[in-house]
Every structure is written in C-alpha cells, then in structure tokens.
Write a structure and sequence with these properties.
heterodimer, A: mainly alpha, MetI-like fold, 9 helices, 0% strand, B: alpha/beta, 5-stranded mixed β-sheet, 12 strands, Transporter substrate-binding domain-containing protein (chain B), Solute-binding_3/MltF_N (chain B), signal (chain B), membrane (chain A)
Chain lengths: 221, 267
C-alpha cells in the first residue's frame, strides 16, 4: 500500500538548515537543564526545610510537573499565560515548559539519591564539628549528585526530545520546527522526518556517551 | 498443437482480466471514497453542534462520491498531515483546500483548481494595524504549511524586521491573535470572516486585503493515478458547468463567485 518514491537529493539540500535547527534544539535543552537543575535543588531544599508552606509548594510543583503531559505544560506557558495577558515568545514558552518539567523530575531523582546516603554520615560529620549546612554541602550534596548523575543525563535526553513539542506554540527555528516547515513547503514528509529522526538520535546518543565518559572520569572510587 | 496451446493461453489471460486495477477501479469496487478534509478551516471544513463534519469541502467530497456511485467517508486531517494520510493509504483523494504549488506537484498529482481564495489581513485591535504594510516590523503568524504562511514568512524576511510564527492549526492562530501574542495574521478572507463572526475571538477585525497572488486550490491524489486525476478534472469542470459550484459557494461563503480560470494560458 505504501506508494512513495524517495527524493533524497532534494531533501539533503536542506541539511544545513536542519543542522542549524539542531543547534537551537541543543541550546534549548541545555538551558532548560541548567534552569531545571537549579530549581530541582531548590525544591529538594524546600522539602527538607521542614516548613509546611515550602514543602507544600515543592510537592505541588513536582506533582504537576510529573503527572501532566509536557505538551500541556508548554501549551499552558504560551496560551495559558497568554490569556492572562502574559506573553512569552515561543522560545521562552518552550524553555519555561521544559524547565518546569525537568525541575519536577530532577527533584524526584534528588530525593531518591538522598535516600541512598545513610543518615549516619551526616551525624558523623556533625560529631566532627561541622555545622548542619557544612555537613549537607560537604558530605551529602557531592554524593547525592554522584548518585543522581545518570538519571540527570536521562532527563537531558528527554529534554532534547521534548523540544520537538515547540511546534505547537509556533516555534520554527528548532529542528522540529524547521522540519515541519520544509515538509509543508515540499510535501516530502518521509525524507525530512527520517533525517530529523537521525539527527535527534545522534544528538541523544552523543549526550549519553559523553555523560558516560564524564561519569567514568569523575566517579572512580 | 501449438495453436491450441496459444489459444488456451490467450483464453486464460482474457478470463483473468487485466492484472492491475488502478485507484479509480479500487474506489468504485470498494464502494467507499475516503476524502482527506481539514475540519479546522471554516467555512471549507468544520464540525457542527452535533460534531458532524460540514462545509464546502465536505459537500464537495459528497458530490464526488455521488458521481462515482459510492459512499463518502470524511477523514479529518490537519493541514500538515494531508500528504502523509494519502501516502500511507488512509485516504484516496484530498479535498482539503490544497494550494497547487509546483513544489508540491513534485510529490502529489493535482487536479485543475476547484476553488480560489483571496487573502485578508486580520489584526488585533490594539496593534493599530490598518493595512498590509502596517504589519512591517510587527509579530505576525499564520497556519504552518499553508500558501499564505509561506508567502507571509517570505514577506517578513523581505521587510527584514518583525517576526513570523507558524501555528499548527487555524484555531491556534486566531487564539494567539486574540490574546495579543501576535499582532496580525494573513489568512484566506473566507476563513477570516468566518472566525471573526463566531465571536470566539474577541478584539480582532479584518482590516484589509493582502496583495498575494490568488490562491488556487486543487483536489489531489497520488501522482501516478492518471485515471483518477482525469476523472477529478472532469468532475471539477462539471461542478462549474452544472451550477453546483455556484450553489455551494452561495451556501457556504456568499458574494462574488471566484473565477477558476487564468486568462491567456491553458491548464
């Protein structure tokens, strides 16, 4: 039933344009991870703070971020806030949506990582004369980041793939946006989508391999 | 002996019939015509209060099915998914307000034009845009993959200022426009009027014509299905000849009937 002749040479002409789009994709993913990590750490601290308001805030954020689709979060950042007169550009809305999602998931990763570190270590630190903050910063945090490192790279890959949802809020410079536009112009759907899939795959693969290399260098006992 | 064998071979071939039925045969023998229609594009295609597909394109598909003596099946396809739907065999024909660009004709087979659009500028009342030129330097948007989106993006690049944003559906464009996320849009005048009239998108109005070429739209099917394309061409011609085109235009759009021919050249 599949009746289609591939025109690869035509599609490959657009490769430079698509690679430019891939750079934008990578940029959004990296930025969203940086912002997400900062907020995740903050949420983790909120949870540990013992304050009911702060931990309630953190819990609500994590619940929404993890239990609603990323598409919905990005759509709300653009059209939801838009109906209140707050106008985020497609780039900002996409970044905000993914960063929000990242923060929720990463905070959960951090929580799991914290559980892997025995309480006795903190107590040992305290008995050596460290303050509570010192014990957290010098003993718990480095170990927590080590345990959470691979889940963090996992989230990074997920962030790269989530950038493709930007087309729903009018994003046209990232890889998915560029692909969609090339497709609309020429109708060579399968060529452009296949190339885009290969590029997404390559980016994700490079990120995981790089992360493994870093983990191998940094976390040797 | 030899002649007997040959005669037998000839007889078998004749009985077996032609080995290849084309798409036109397939449609007639299956009894169903599956049309790709965009239902996010009033008055060409939309859903009524009972969620039933209605619109010019829907009626056009039904007419085509009636002419073929089969039943019509409307397959909803958003603009970017028209071609994948055809290529993957989910639909037979696109009755989906598809502009007949040369670039696209490399991929699908287009009939002669069955409808023609003029382009209108719709703006947010707060943006202070009163004409097409007023959009220079502003944030504008349109439905990704449409004739007007391609033309508008090119125009924004030519102006060298302002920003262009493609949205996935026509409804998203008008939502963004109504919220003030974009200052203006170019869409087909029929769609602009239909959307302003619904009252779902407050604070927007149609402010003028866009000086783009007339957007002729065609029916499409697989590029190599000459039999079917030939039938579609005759069907479009008959729709105009019998006055059905004018009737449908009056029913869904109203006003001056657009001419489907270009003077000075054959199609």
């Amino acid at each position: 039933m599949f009746n289609y002749t591939f025109h690869w040479n035509q599609a490959l002409k657009a490769l430079p344009q698509m690679l430019d789009g891939a750079l934008v994709t990578l940029k959004i993913a990296l930025l969203s991870m940086a912002i997400g990590l900062a907020f995740a750490l903050l949420l983790t601290l909120f949870r540990l703070s013992g304050s009911r308001i702060l931990s309630g805030f953190a819990r609500t954020w994590i619940e929404i971020a993890r239990n609603t689709p990323a598409l919905f979060q990005i759509y709300m950042a653009h059209f939801g806030l838009g109906s209140f007169g707050i106008h985020l550009s497609p780039f900002t809305a996409l970044l905000a949506g993914i960063a929000f999602n990242n923060a929720g998931y990463l905070a959960e990763n951090f929580r799991g990582a914290l559980k892997a570190i025995p309480d006795t270590q903190t107590r040992a630190g305290r008995s050596l004369g460290m303050s509570a903050i010192q014990a957290f910063r010098l003993i718990v945090l480095p170990q927590m980041l080590r345990v959470a490192f691979l889940p963090i790279t996992n989230q990074m890959v997920w962030a790269i793939l989530m950038t493709s949802l930007g087309v729903t809020v009018g994003m046209n410079t990232d890889l998915a946006g560029v692909t969609q536009e090339l497709n609309a112009r020429s109708f060579r759907t399968f060529e452009f989508f296949a190339i885009a899939a290969v590029i997404y795959y390559a980016i994700a693969k490079v990120v995981t391999l790089a992360a493994r290399l870093i983990a191998w260098r940094m976390f040797r006992y | 002996m030899k002649t007997k064998v040959l005669a037998l071979a000839a007889l078998t071939t004749a009985l077996a019939g032609p080995a290849l039925a084309d798409k036109l045969d397939d449609i007639i023998s299956s009894g169903t015509l599956r049309c790709a229609v965009v239902l996010d594009f009033p008055p060409m295609g939309s859903r009524d209060a009972n969620n039933t597909p209605v619109g010019f394109d829907v009626d056009y598909c039904n007419d085509l099915a009636a002419a073929l003596g089969v039943t019509a099946e409307i397959v909803e396809t958003p603009f970017p998914e028209r071609i994948p739907a055809l290529m993957s065999g989910r639909v037979d024909v696109g009755v989906a307000s598809t502009s007949d660009t040369l670039e696209r004709a490399k991929t699908v087979g287009m009939s002669v034009p069955y409808f023609a659009f003029e382009m209108a500028v719709t703006s947010n009342d707060k943006a202070g845009i009163t004409s097409f030129e007023g959009m220079k330097g502003k944030t504008v948007g349109a439905t990704a993959g449409t004739f007007e989106a391609i033309a508008l993006e090119k125009q924004v690049k030519e102006w060298g200022e302002g920003e262009f944003r493609p949205y996935q559906t026509q409804a998203d464009v008008f939502l963004a426009l109504s919220q003030g996320q974009i200052d203006a849009t170019v869409s087909t005048s029929t769609v602009a009027q239909a959307n302003v009239k619904t009252g779902n998108f407050p604070g927007i109005s149609v402010v003028g014509k866009a000086p783009f070429d007339t957007d002729y739209v065609a029916l499409f099917t697989n590029r190599e299905e000459y039999g079917l394309i030939n039938y579609l061409n005759l069907f479009v011609n008959q729709q105009v000849r019998t006055g059905r085109y004018a009737e449908l235009y009056e029913k869904w759009v109203g006003g001056d009937l657009p001419d489907l021919t270009v003077s000075g050249v054959y199609r």
